[in-house]
């Protein structure tokens, strides 16, 4: 598989690859194995490049998940990204019956002979935006953005009750629950966690809330909302709730595209069971 990139303003091959936060060892191996070419000419060493040069990387990969029989809901696609809407109740990756198996089917149907790569994940019970990267450079770049909290991530949640403050931030640290390995909990020894929230609309006994997370801790919004006494509707783990699905949806993401350098913003409409709450 050959992936092409248009150089915008980097001055050398190492600068270009370094922008994607590719490791030095990986850069060295690509050069030494004749896997990089500029305007069709293979290069083995770091050389100067010009704006508009076509940098190509060629490497062998194969689809690494068994294909399912399920179609996917595509929100955005180009040569570097496949961004989809994940349904609630679907796990991200497993040997079968996971979103990665569904992506594998799409790749197989469209002759995309690449491994299934994802820089982020959302809970099985959470619906909404999931990002998949088609090539190694984009995957490395997005891993860096997620790890350094440089991606805008917005969720819509329906929570029990009403919040005293209609907007604010929850900053309690989150760690693993020592008594239940499937759960997280607020803990003074946990990892720094930051959830910014704003009430969108209030109903008789519940509220619609916008949440923007600066960190990406496991179950972060669920733990924070439950801890302050407003668990998410449908959250059986943290709220003992029997609503049909958990009312938490990854609604919007925004980031700078690594190749075009343009800002990409993706939004994903609410699932029907959350729209039913908007009475």
What is the number of domains?
3
The fraction of residues assigned to DSSP E strands is 25-35%
CATH-level-2 architecture of the largest domain: 2-Layer Sandwich
Helix share, percent: 10-25%
The helix count comes to 6
**Which term fits the overall shape?**
elongated
Helix/sheet category: alpha+beta
The SSE order reads: EHHEEEEEHEHEEEEEEHEEH
Mean pLDDT: 95
Named CATH topology of the largest domain:
Pseudouridine synthase
Ends apart, CA distance between termini: 50 Å
* pLDDT < 50 runs, ≥5 residues: none
Number of strands: 15
Whole-number radius of gyration?
21 Å
- Under CATH, the homologous superfamily of the largest domain reads Pseudouridine synthase
CATH class of the largest domain: Alpha Beta
Key words describing this protein structure:
single chain; 279 residues; alpha+beta; Structural Genomics Hypothetical 15.5 Kd Protein In mrcA-pckA Intergenic Region, Chain A; Pseudouridine synthase; 3 domains; nine-stranded mixed sheet; 6 helices; 18% helix
Topology (elements, then pairings):
Blueprint: E1 2-6, H1 13-19, H2 24-32, E2 36-38, E3 41-42, E4 54-58, E5 74-77, E6 81-86, H3 99-109, E7 127-133, H4 136-147, E8 152-160, E9 167-170, E10 174-176, E11 184-186, E12 195-202, E13 206-213, H5 220-227, E14 248-256, E15 263-267, H6 272-275
Parallel strand pairs: 7-14
Antiparallel strand pairs: 1-4, 2-3, 2-4, 5-6, 6-7, 8-13, 8-14, 9-12, 10-11, 12-13, 14-15
């Amino acid at each position: 598989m050959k992936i092409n990139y248009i150089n915008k303003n980097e001055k050398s091959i190492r600068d270009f690859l370094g922008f994607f936060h590719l490791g030095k060892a990986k850069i060295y191996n690509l050069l030494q194995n004749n896997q990089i070419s500029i305007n069709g000419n293979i290069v083995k060493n770091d050389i100067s490049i010009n704006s508009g040069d076509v940098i190509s990387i060629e490497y062998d990969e194969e689809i690494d998940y068994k294909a399912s029989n399920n179609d996917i809901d595509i929100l955005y696609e180009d040569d570097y990204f496949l961004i989809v809407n994940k349904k609630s109740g679907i796990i991200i990756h497993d040997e079968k019956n996971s979103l990665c198996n569904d992506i594998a089917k799409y790749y197989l149907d469209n002759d995309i002979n690449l491994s299934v790569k994802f820089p982020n994940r959302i809970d099985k019970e959470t619906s909404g935006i999931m990002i998949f990267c088609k090539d190694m450079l984009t995957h490395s770049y997005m891993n860096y953005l997620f790890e350094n909290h440089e991606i805008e991530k917005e969720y819509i949640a329906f929570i029990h009750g009403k919040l005293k403050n209609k907007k604010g931030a929850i900053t309690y640290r989150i760690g693993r629950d020592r008594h239940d390995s499937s759960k997280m909990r607020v803990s003074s020894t946990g990892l720094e966690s930051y959830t910014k929230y704003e009430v969108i609309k209030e109903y008789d006994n519940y509220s619609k809330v916008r949440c923007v997370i600066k960190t990406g801790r496991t179950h972060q919004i669920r733990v924070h909302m439950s801890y302050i006494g407003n668990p998410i509707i449908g959250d059986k783990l943290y709220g003992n709730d029997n609503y049909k699905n958990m009312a938490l949806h990854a609604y919007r993401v925004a980031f700078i595209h690594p190749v075009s350098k343009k800002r990409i913003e993706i939004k994903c409409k609410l699932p029907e069971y959350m729209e039913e709450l908007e009475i």
